[in-house]
């Protein structure tokens, strides 16, 4: 579990109420928060996918054809991308604050290739199909 998540939540809640607070929060995330090490952040998203995909398989027996909801999209939607690669039919994704960032999303799409062997192992989909 990530350290200091309660403090982070309080700070982000306060920032969301301030003028330009969302922009300040984004700058803080990129300079010293989760986004300061993009590759590590993406690696943690892959680990999150492992957990959530196991939960889906344990509950529904499969990933393909499922319809899912993600709460808290964040700056780049890598979990929906990974689930989509593995055959999930539809994913509705919501966030209280619009953080979605095209630059980070495309960066994530470019970087996800190095994680395809892990995603393949977790999902049972051949790497060639994921590519």
Structure description:
This protein is mainly alpha-helical. The chain is built from 7 helices and 2 strands. It has a two-stranded parallel ribbon with strand order 1-2. Strand 1, helix 4 and strand 2 form a beta-alpha-beta unit. Helix 3 (38-60) crosses helix 4. The longest helix has 23 residues, at 38-60. The chain is globular and about 45 Å long. The two termini are 30 Å apart. The mean pLDDT is 85.
Short description:
With 131 residues, this protein is mainly alpha-helical. Helix content is 59%, strand content 8%.
Shape: globular
Catalogue the unreliable spans. Answer: none
State the strand order across the main sheet. Answer: 1-2
Helix/strand-derived category reads mainly alpha
Count of extended strands? 2
Q: H/E element string? A: HHHEHEHHH
- Helix percentage: 55-70%
Count helical runs: 7
Quick check: average pLDDT?
85
Roughly what fraction of the amino acids lie in strands? Answer: 5-15%
**Biggest β-sheet description:** 2 strands, parallel
Distance between the termini: 30 Å
Rg is 16 Å
Show the helix and strand layout:
Layout: H1 5-16, H2 21-32, H3 38-60, E1 67-71, H4 78-85, E2 90-94, H5 102-111, H6 116-123, H7 127-130
Parallel strand pairs: 1-2
Helix pairs in contact: 1-2, 3-4, 3-6
């Amino acid at each position: 579990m990530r350290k200091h998540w309660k403090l982070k939540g309080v700070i982000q809640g306060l920032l969301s109420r301030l003028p330009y607070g969302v922009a300040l929060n984004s700058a803080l995330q990129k300079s010293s928060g989760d986004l300061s090490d993009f590759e590590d952040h993406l690696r943690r998203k892959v680990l999150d996918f492992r957990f959530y995909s196991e939960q889906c398989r344990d509950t529904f027996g499969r990933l393909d054809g499922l319809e899912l909801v993600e709460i808290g999209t964040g700056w780049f939607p890598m979990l929906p991308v990974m689930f989509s690669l593995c055959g999930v039919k539809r994913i509705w994704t919501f966030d209280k604050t619009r953080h979605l960032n095209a630059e980070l999303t495309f960066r994530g799409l470019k970087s996800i290739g190095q994680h395809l062997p892990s995603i393949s192992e977790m999902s049972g989909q051949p790497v060639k199909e994921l590519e």
